[in-house]
Specification:
By secondary structure, the protein is of the alpha+beta class. It is 35% helix and 17% strand. It folds into 2 domains: 117 residues, NADH Oxidase; 176 residues, NADH Oxidase.
């Protein structure tokens, strides 16, 4: 069948939508919906899935949707089409985040095909890493990948700076753990063992009590007041990995969306080389801690993501909602 025929184009759109489901999102909320009109895909924010306490401004929601946007574009290129994208095209419809149209026919290069192969394999990690180092050349490449999407990735080399970021994460997690309403919002997205839900974090996907990294980067307490989560392996890896900050010059909705695109580009390129990421956004959800980080460690740029990059041999379960549930 010729690449340009209508059935092939329809197949490409369906493949892109199925791939977009696997984008990362805060607490695996999958806060997006899609519309299809001819050869156009509409990406919309599903505000019913927004974290009302932890993400009242919708920053993390738009980052999640930006990751879905990058995934759609990557999948379309793998199917042989260069996407034409308009981000936030209608000020009167703030939930409409992007319109993606099939453009010219292209031959996917080796790098694009490699990224496409990682879309369903990529997993968020929620514990320590092995002592195996992340290659410097890979980190340099990830910095370029982020820059090409409009964000800045900064691997943090200073042990003092790493300790400061860990301390901010500890302070934020401690404060949030005392907030009952916020804790309830977190465990709303923690799936109990045996749950048939297709969103949220599976009980097998987070440790009941994670082994401590050094310095200590606490995880979300998905097991709050519950005996959920996987049993910690006493011999589990505890290396911190490479701490990195993802920042933008401003703090607009356009830059939040660009952050998500940069994030997914980083994650897929890293996954090609067996490198996973753990996220720590607790401090970024508290204005004064985020502002301290911006002023002291981010050269006045706005921190959008704190992550650790490393190598792990865990293969945790992940779940996604069926595509019909996401279509409008």
């Amino acid at each position: 069948m010729a690449a340009g025929t209508a059935p092939h184009r329809e197949h490409a759109i369906q493949a892109a939508l199925k791939a977009a489901r696997w984008a990362p999102s805060v607490h695996n909320t999958q806060p997006w919906s899609f519309g299809v009109s001819g050869e156009e895909i509409s990406l919309r924010a599903d505000t019913d899935r927004k974290l009302l306490m932890g993400d009242s401004a919708g920053r993390e929601l738009l980052i999640s949707c930006g990751a879905a946007l990058f995934t759609i574009c990557t999948a379309l290129r793998c199917e042989g089409y260069e996407p034409s994208v308009r981000v936030l095209p209608d000020p009167d419809r703030p939930s409409l985040l992007a319109v993606i149209r099939l453009g010219a026919e292209v031959e996917a290069d080796e790098d694009t095909r490699a990224l496409g192969a990682e879309i369903e394999r990529r997993r968020t990690h929620r514990a320590g890493f092995t002592d195996l180092p992340v290659p410097e050349r890979l980190l340099e490449g990830l910095v370029k990948d982020a820059r090409s999407e409009g964000a800045r990735l900064t691997p943090v080399g200073s042990p003092v700076a790493v300790s400061m970021i860990a301390a901010l994460t500890q302070a934020a997690q401690a404060a949030q753990s005392q907030d009952r309403v916020l804790s309830l919002e977190v465990i709303r997205w923690a799936r109990p063992p045996g749950s048939a839900r297709k969103d949220g974090v599976p009980a097998e996907g987070y440790p009941r009590q994670a082994a401590r990294t050094d310095p200590y980067f606490p995880q979300r307490d998905y097991a709050w007041r519950h005996d959920w989560g996987s049993q910690a392996d006493q011999s589990a890896s505890t290396a911190t990995g490479v701490v990195a900050l993802l920042t933008t010059p401003g703090d607009t909705r356009e830059e939040w969306t660009a952050t998500g695109q940069a994030l997914q580009s980083i994650l897929l390129h890293a996954s090609v080389y067996g490198v996973s990421a753990a996220f720590h956004t607790q401090a970024l959800e508290m204005y004064h801690l985020r502002e301290f980080l911006r002023q002291e460690l981010c050269s006045q740029e706005y921190p959008q993501m704190i992550m650790r990059l490393g190598i792990t041999f865990d293969d945790k379960e992940s779940v996604r909602r069926p595509l019909p549930d996401m279509l409008e």
